[in-house]
């Protein structure tokens, strides 16, 4: 297993280093977001190449990762096209000053690459395990993944449609899935990796793969997802009212909303 992880890590290092050089030329670190999905396609391909016994379960997980990654990358590319560098990366560019190049490489590209390898651990573990009969865990995992995929895809589509309407300029999305969780797309992404983990549990020795969904959930909820995005709206009374009524991550029925002063 250590050899598989080392090969995966080396491939991700080369991928992220090349991406970093492109970002330097373009002066836009935001391209790392669109590369998040392709990074996992690379890891899935390496897993299949290292252990070419292509069982149905491995093909299923690889197909799920491919579907998620292609949809997410297309969405991010289309959303960011022509908008310039994302406000988060632009703020770091201004704040880091002379250390910007080194910190960008380590804290954005290499750190993201590290998390890629960690999150993809269920795929790596499954590749080294013998084939096993289909089980209820496979069905449960697929069901969980599909729910997560719908949350992410539908949430993204609803937000994109909301932003295209000229009357919504400057307003906060509070309808659709966004009425039940402030970040249905983040919740959906985490849920998909929990589904992948459940499928990987169908073979012996899959428990260490728990690090994958646990890592992405903690990152999105407490580090790079919800906190960074909501910091942008911290001083807005309308967002405070929305946040007081709707859960940040786990979907639930909205509480009675207090009117913004």
Can you tell me about this structure?
The protein is mainly alpha-helical and 261 residues long. Helices cover 69% and strands 0% of the residues. It contains twelve helices and no strands. It has helices at residues 2-26, 31-34, 36-50, 56-80, 87-96, 100-119, 121-127, 136-164, 184-200, 211-223, 226-231, 237-245. Helix 1 runs antiparallel to helix 3 (36-50) and helix 3 packs across helix 6 (100-119). The longest helix is centred in the middle third of the chain and has 29 residues, at 136-164. The protein is globular. 32% of the residues are buried.
Short précis:
The protein is 69% helix and 0% strand. The chain contains twelve helices and no strands. Helix 1 (2-26) runs antiparallel to helix 3, helix 3 (36-50) packs antiparallel against helix 4 (56-80) and helix 4 (56-80) packs parallel to helix 8 (136-164).
In the predicted model, the low-confidence regions spanning at least 5 consecutive residues are none
Mean pLDDT: 91
Estimated share of beta-strand residues: under 5%
Shape: globular
Task: Report how far apart the termini are.
Answer: 57 Å
Structural class: mainly alpha
SSE arrangement:
Layout lengths: L1 H25 L4 H4 L1 H15 L5 H25 L6 H10 L3 H20 L1 H7 L8 H29 L19 H17 L10 H13 L2 H6 L5 H9 L16
Helix pairs in contact: 1-3, 1-6, 3-4, 3-6, 4-8, 8-9, 9-10
Q: Main attributes?
A:
single chain; 261 residues; mainly alpha; globular
